[in-house]
Amino acid sequence: MTLREVPVIDVAPFLAEAPEERRRVAAEVNRACEELGFLIVRGHGVPVDLVADMYDVSRRFFELPLPEKMRARGEDRSRGYGAQGEEALSYGLGKAAPADVKEGLYEGPMDVPDTPYFRGREGAPHFVPNVWPERPAELPRIWRAYYRQRDAPLPGQLRAGEHTDYGTMTILKIEDAPGGLQVRTRQGRWLDVGAVSDAFVVNIGDLMMHWTNDRWISTLHRVVNPPRDATLGTGRLSLAFFHQPNYDALIECLPSCQGPGNPAKHPPVTSGEHRNRKFAATTVAP
Which residues pair with 270 in a beta bridge? Predict the structure, then answer.
């Protein structure tokens, strides 16, 4: 049967390395990735207190006056503060729409080696230095801990326009607030993605879809606006981790995902080339 909602999957048995349970969890994940490209995982082992600290310190940053937030603006769009009106994700699909109603604080890898691969001409655009805000003072420490943890809008304007994600997968923590994440099924229906306590939303990105020849799908999704009678005081904070392969990694169809009558559907492309094209396409001209 076709999935009618985003499935919630407990991955604790997989992490515990119980053979039979690992196969069961893997089968559940495979079905979700084939049919919807989205899933919600619980039993992940990330400390609840650390997630709460991330929300608290991030919300305090976004509550600062705009001039102060702008001081954390980076030269590259992928680092530092990004104000509202600078990005329209639907542009990446060739769809005209007003700029997205969102702002962001974007940081990348925390421990970049000082070697030619990372600092050279090809690598430098993908590993630009992080730009941290001055306040809250503890924000860089908490963000680093979270990153490294191992155990009335215009017509057609959305908080985040219809788009797919660019890399292999996204791990997302969302709030239960009016106006939220929606995912488009293969049948063309928009599903609401509800906030599940102590769980992460995971979705497949473009490059994973290219690798698997569309077996696992990079699903269209968007973040809709709250109802008109619930607009005030409904700021929505999402914590997103976007996984991107090395910029020089060649993304081409896996041999096991193609064959007679099922040729590769996407031309080979490097991870960096794909990212750069999407960034260029979704930037709103000043």
Answer: 250
Return the half-sphere exposure (C-beta side, CA atoms, 13 A cut-off) of residue 153.
23
Strands 8-10 and 38-42, bridge-based pairing: parallel
172 token code pair: 């997302």
* 75 CB neighbour count, 10 Å cutoff: 9
Which residue blocks in the chain are alpha helix, DSSP H?
A: 12-15, 19-35, 48-62, 66-70, 116-119, 139-148, 206-211, 271-282
| Residue 283 identity | T
Residue with tokens 């999402």: 238
CA 132 vs. chain centroid, Å, equals 20
d(CA 18, CA 15): 8
118 vs 128: CA distance, rounded Å: 9
Q: Decide the pairing of beta strands 250-251 and 199-204.
A: unpaired
| Assessment of whether the complete model's pTM goes beyond 0.90 | no
In the prediction, which pLDDT does 208 show? 96
Identify the CA nearest to 220 among candidates 184, 188, 194: 184
Q: Are 146 and 54 in contact (CB under 8 A)?
A: yes
Question: Are the C-beta atoms of residues 106 and 75 closer than 8 Å to each other?
Answer: no
Separation of alpha carbons 3 and 29, rounded Å? 12
What is the C-alpha to C-alpha distance for residues 186 and 204, in angstroms, rounded to an integer?
14
**In the chain, what is the straight-line distance between the N-terminal and C-terminal CA atoms, in Å?**
47
Q: Compute the Cα dihedral for 74, 78, 79, 81 and give only its sign.
A: positive
pLDDT tens-place string over residues 218-247: 988 888 766 654 444 456 688 999 999 999
Cβ neighbour number for residue 121 with a 10 Å cutoff: 7
Q: Cα dist. 119→127, 128, 188, 194, 271 in Å?
A: 7, 8, 43, 40, 17
What are the tens digits of pLDDT across the range 102-121?
899 999 998 888 999 999 98
